[in-house]
Amino acid sequence: MDTTGKGTVAHQLIAAHLVAGRMEPGEEIALRVDQTLTQDATGTLVMQELEALGLDRVRTEVSVQYVDHNLLQADERNAEDHDFLRSAARRFGVWYSKPGNGVSHPTHMQRFGVPGKTLIGSDSHTCAGGSLGMLAIGTGGLEVALAMAGRPLYVTMPRIWGVRLTGELPPWVSAKDVILEMLRRHGVRGGVNRVLEYHGPGLASLTAMDRHVIANMGAELGATASVFPSDAAVREFLRAEGREEDFTEITAEPGARYDLEEEIDLGAVVPLIAKPTSPGNVVPVREVAGEVVNQAVIGSSANPGLRDFAMAAAMVRGRQTAPGVSFDVNPTSREILQDLTRSGATFDLIAAGARIHQSGCLGCIGMGQAPAAGRNSLRTFPRNFPGRSGTEDDAVWLCSPETAAASALTGVITDPRDWAEDRGVEYRAPELPEHFSVNTAMLEPPLPPNEAARVELERGPNISALPDFEPLPDTIEGPVLLKAGDNVSTDEISPAGARALPYRSNIPMLARFTLTRLDPQYPKHAAETREEGGHLIVAGDNYGQGSSREHAAITPRYLGLRAVVAKSFARIHWQNLANFGVLALEFDDPADYGRIQPGDRLRLTGLHAALTADAEPRLRVRNITRDEEYGVHHHLSPRRREAVLAGGVIPALAREEAADDA
């Protein structure tokens, strides 16, 4: 194996965990996994997958199951899932973070993050762990289950994109504006198959939690991971968390070489905001100032730090939010809420009219705090895809805590610099405690093996088994049931929100919501194709961007989806399609996308021979309706080809084990 690096932090981390493959961009590599992270919106499937794999106990150094998404208990279903997850954590030797303890990413950073380790999670924002000098990658739940079972993570070796930071952020500008600047420059596809590595003298002014803000939203660029060095800022963070012994210095070597290079002068960054309905739709706040605001929400894994809440509290202290504005605060962990309260900032927020919610994701995933239809909601969240807020006709904007607080006070979108100048407010950075609160009361450690072996999984009636998917046929023929545009998100494929998410562990029920934001009749028409060989979807660029939820692959597959032909795919969704036996193909000529119409009948033949390990990755798809043929190709490694042929990774592993037993 090739373990030579280029001296970057990312190369050092990859080389230290490489178990197979060559560190050449585009090559498939296998990485040893030290830690895993699962959350309740995706973790129920992970635990069912561990059961299907016959796992006795996790093989990782640390695995943690968080309950942070589905906290609203409007009926019994979420509570049933929480019981199932706790029983599975106890059975398999996993830490369990109880409901209300905190959002997975900042909580993991506080309690478990260790420089130099690998972390993968069934949540796309797992990449936030890169703020501590970790190689942290969001991926599908099945990859996480396999890692928990001791198997490596297979990924395409990314290109390393060095982002050099210089200068210091000016008053009223914060880390959120830095990542919004990257999105303004490069859009939601700019980081695909890349690791963003931040370096340069500007790092000295960014705390570890500032870096978390930036690393977190690398997911919105489509990046495989975001990496920061483990330096003095990381040591200071771990010291404040009572874990300085976990510190290891990891910095780029002198003369480190990056595949791509970028530079940001922090002193030139201005307050930015992402307009509805994409994180990449970024403009200066002053460009849209004056738009009426009805809601402003502070929190989420994209702005989770004590500093962010304290900054908003300082701005509203002694003032009242504007009439007609709902000012919502989602504390990201109980520990942060304790420190916020101890400093008096919680009182300042409440006195100003803020609504304090429990520690968790909540509004970020559409579980509560849904805005009024068509009314502007400013959020410090990572995503503003259509309908993700829980309101179909929403108008969600993404911004910094400073912009959100200033706008909550004025009732219109306001640049915080202008708010401060108009009112004669002097900028003061919040003073943070030398030692942060440490409260592990809601973290349950793994049971000893002898006790764990006696635990039975607690299944409520809403928890179904994983569907059994048959192998890929040699010929796929079916209608194009949906023609999707560019940048379709997994929120549009398998919706979040309080209506759908309680069924996340009940695939037949969840399937009824599949792609209904694009075509309300899709589930009905798709189910009708199952007995006739299934159907296909045709899509534009970056199909499946956003959340890592593998439900977006499983429920269409359950409804008869056999292949997706797109201009390009988002990384995690592409992996999830292969994991569950759906053939993901790309047009040789993107212009052919325009030649296919909904309802056209397509045929792919000779698939078994075309997907053998040594076969060329190019195929032909015939449009029977229009008597045309189009060239298509795939990016499947020999290992992934076997999985698709078998009907998914779990059937492929079962076939492999049967062959070994024979």
What can you see in these coordinates?
- Residues 521-589 form the Aconitase A/isopropylmalate dehydratase small subunit swivel domain.
- This is Aconitate hydratase.
- By secondary structure, this protein is of the alpha/beta class.
- 30% of the residues lie in helices and 19% in strands.
- It contains 23 helices and 27 strands.
- Strands 21-22-23-24-27-26-25 form a 7-stranded mixed β-barrel.
- Helix 6 packs parallel to helix 7 and helix 22 packs across helix 23 (649-661).
Quick overview:
This protein is of the alpha/beta class and 662 residues long. It contains 23 helices and 27 strands.
Main features:
alpha/beta; Aconitate hydratase; 19% strand; 23 helices; single chain; 662 residues; 6-stranded mixed sheet; 7-stranded mixed beta barrel
Classify the beta-strand content into a percent band.
15-25%
End-to-end C-alpha gap? 31 Å
Q: Over the alpha carbons, how many angstroms does the gyration radius reach?
A: 24 Å
**Major pleated sheet:** 7 strands, mixed, barrel
Q: What class, by secondary structure content?
A: alpha/beta
Question: Helix count, per DSSP?
Answer: 23
* Morphology call: globular
- Enumerate the strands of the largest sheet in spatial order, edge to edge or round the barrel: 21-22-23-24-27-26-25
